[in-house]
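Side project, low priority. Logging it here so it doesn't get lost.
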Amino acid sequence: MLQINEMIAALAQSDPDARRAALEELLCTAKLPYTIQKGQHNPKKLCVSENFLVKIGDPQDPCVLFCAHYDAVHGSCGANDNAAAVCVLISLATALNERGIPAEFAFFDGEESGRGGSKLYARELDKKSVTAVVNVDLCGYGDTIAMLSKGSGRKNAVHGFYSKEILKKYSVTAVKYLPESDDASFSGLQIPIISLAVVPRWDVQFLNALASYGGGLLGRPPEFEQMQQQMEITTTMHGGFRDTVESIQPEATELMYNYLLEAVTAPKQQKTSIFSKIRT
């Protein structure tokens, strides 16, 4: 099994076809059986999404869905946005498969062009098959896990993600805003959603401040974009100058991987924390 940083180097391809082929190769190397979900999400431009789906355990058993988008903005190798998260989830899927712990993994296409892949998945989803959604986007740079929760703290399926001990151990901080990702495709489906990213600690104050701007009928003011550009994590997104393999910090991906693994395998009797009270 390749290390996470080795997988990121293989997946961080600027050519979409090469990137897709690299993902297939990584799943085969990890011995994770997968299916490909295809769908046309923009008839005018004939864009086709190709989602890679991995199911661990009985296909009929409801379980948590872990997801991350594997596409990148045009011309970018997308190392942090979002090869790092994909490779963390491949490692997690391998670990859960070895332990016989049921879970589903979805690697979505088209997030950077309107979330076509996750919209396709959500449209065809049997809600009874998914107990919660954990979306991971940006996890290769920084020292703090930022968690955006949408009313899922009291849900038994994700109880481990709110354990006081685990939150403290892995420097998890509740935030009120994260840049929109594939989690938005599941809004309104009454499924618990957790969105996760790794950011530099000083970016947390910006994320919480950005939440105060909201959306509104007229959209967000210029100050919103100005504040967003002040965040260090922004340099690792959308082809920013740090969205490169060289800028990936192995300790960041290990932080996310270890948190996910311990959270999903936590004993059910652990109590939830005050983070469960956060609503967005």
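Brief comment: Residues 4-277 form a domain with the Aminopeptidase fold (CATH 3.40.630.10).
Revisit when time allows.
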